[in-house]
Amino acid sequence: MKLHRPLLPLIAAGCVAAFPCAAQDLAAKGRELFKKHQASVVTVQLVVKTKMGVAGITGLPGGGGDARESKEEVTGTVIDPSGLTVVALSSTDPAGLFQGMMSSFGELGGDGEENVQFKMETEVADVKLLGHDGTEMPAEIVLRDKDLDLAFVRPKTKPAAPMPALDLSNSAKVDVLDEVIAINRLGKVAGRTHAAAVERINAVVKKPRLFYVPGSGATMTGLGCPAFTPDGKLVGVVVMRSIKSGGGGGMFSMQGGITAIILPADDVKKIAAQAPAVKEGTK
């Protein structure tokens, strides 16, 4: 079909005008989603004891271990009105991730030489849930899944009122180049304000299990954040996926063995079902 030349500028103008409309529509849906679910995204405050050292080389400072205690804040997503909250395990216990990254360097030293062994141990000494209304609830980590990088936190006592929680069953799958909306809670420096970001799915990995790889650009999205489709379906939770490079290679193989992913809500739901219930007698 041939188009008359006078019509071409009108069609082009109509296409250009459609892009701002689509962006405004996504922003409007995102704000509605943000207002509805931001209270389900909380801060998990941790007191972490860390011990690091280098063993295997005589006389190296720190070989016996250097113990430190620090207070960390990570993002968590409440998935049950009882307060059960999912976080990325790597954000609560970096030791496993650190050891995996160090193994990418391979063994240093040859015959007759001592190998460098980096050691790191972490222990979570205290946990608190900081609700959207400023309340602090003593909590504990009740379940860990290293393979999926999941940890589940539950208040030590039953909350006085049901907590705003996401429904893991109200989920959806996405495809390459689909847009998703992630909700985060920023750190103390930003007043623990909630934030939202639009991410685009760069890849869909189907084996050995399904997960989504979001864009690598710097955004407000962090580990433990929930991600939604624009129509409000939960896609999953942002966690860290890491693998051992298997043959050394230094810094480049380290970078190739770790990436942030969106773990589907169905996988989170299956593991969450194993979390211990609130102990009887707690209020």
Structure commentary:
The chain is of the alpha+beta class and 283 residues long. It has one domain (37-272): Thrombin, subunit H (Beta Barrel). It has five helices and twelve strands. The protein has helices at 7-37, 89-92, 94-103, 251-256, 265-272, and strands at 41-55, 66-78, 85-88, 117-130, 136-145, 150-155, 179-185, 194-205, 211-214, 226-228, 234-242, 258-264. The strands form two sheets. The protein has a six-stranded antiparallel β-barrel. The protein has a six-stranded antiparallel beta sheet with strand order 9-8-7-10-11-12. It is globular. It starts with 6 loop residues before the first helix and ends in an 11-residue tail after the last helix. The model is unreliable at 58-63 and 107-114 (pLDDT under 50).
